[in-house]
User: Fold this.
Amino acid sequence: MSRETTIIITLIVYKVILILIGIFTSRKTSDTDDFYLGGRTLGPVVSAISASASSSSAWTLLGVSGAAYTWGVSVIWLFPACVGGFILNWYVVAPRLHAFSHEKNSLTLTEVISRETPPKYFIATIASIIIAFSLLFYISSQFQAAGKTFAETFDISYTYSVIIGGAIIIFYTLLGGFWAVSITDTLQGLLMAIGAIILPVAAVIEVGGFSSLFEQLAKVEVNGYLSLTRNLPPAAGIGFVLGLLGVGLGYPGQPHVVNRFMALKDQKSVVQARRIAILWAVCVYAGMIILGLCGRVLFDTVNDKEAIFFVVTNGLFSPVIAGIMTACILSAIMSTADSQLLVAASSLTHDLRLNREKNDTANSLVQARVVVLLLSIAAIILALFGSKEIFNRVLFAWTAMGAAFGPILIIRLFFGPITPRAILTAMLLGFILSVVGHSIPQTKGTYFDRILPFVLATIIAFLGTKREKK
Assistant:
């Protein structure tokens, strides 16, 4: 059986499973509480792996491995940044957010930070716009990843591959809502972990072991490939390192990740889930960094650096095994957008009603599904006609939401209510500074882009708690 035939068969089987999950979980979705949080009955395994997968996927598999291939050893700073972000989320945010959301009956991150504020401040409206804007870029990157994978595998145009993958995601997300998203993300996360273990191990063996790997990396004709700062001048090198470490600060502000904390059934599940999630993060991020470095030794010339994952897979395994692995990871990448779609839909339906005195929810489930459809179409268009670089596009959305919501959420959970003016100021300042920092070439990817907005927003939010108490 040829590699292409194997991939097609595996894809069909996997997509049938996703559709069946959507049909099955539609029976468990009768209201918005089910659609957005699965009735708050999520177990530790599903919560841990689905949250991990929805925060990673295409960016980790293709972006991180591609960055390691391109930059060299300096990419190692992403490991403490991302694993540290997992620790921050699961040990600091998760237990408190779970208790708070259950006590207040909050369904979304926006509701947590804005429910106690008067409607005249329009905090929920502005938060919804920020989430929808940021997640549109995030979702489109998942469709782009699917398109790149098809381009590496079949003689199928990028346009058709994006449309086909998007149509399937839309179908099961519309049917099953949060339950469909969580279960499919769990399946996706398990596939990612398997691939992140098997591929790097095979690559290291092929290279000849770690000692041989570093000997051969020393011969790579790229300036600063073995340097922790890419041989940049001191100030620029420090900015580069801080910029990568700053990625970890974005975790508490990701609505599609923290909603898993709100959906957990009890505090015992929080403790169990965080162990699973952090182990997953260590395996996946370490695996993708090692894979990218090995890929540089094994395949010195690659047209698309973010396709090194598939280049190594096809180069090291037999057609059948490579086909199965490629198809599984492709399906995993394509199914990541579901979490972002669901959160964006909740922001534009449920959260926008927080500003209304009369909260009519009669048609909220229908409205949510319509918004999912419209956002999917917009993301597909952006994927087809926007920039094709996954790594930076995801980090842009990640950093913007992290700076806008993370500081407010942490301060609210630890220090109590914040004045509406401070919430509004912190949210807008964090978001706008992140966008500006990303837009300027000299500050893009540095502390100005990923740390300064978060710190300033945190200070403003904290000062807002003091005024609230007075």
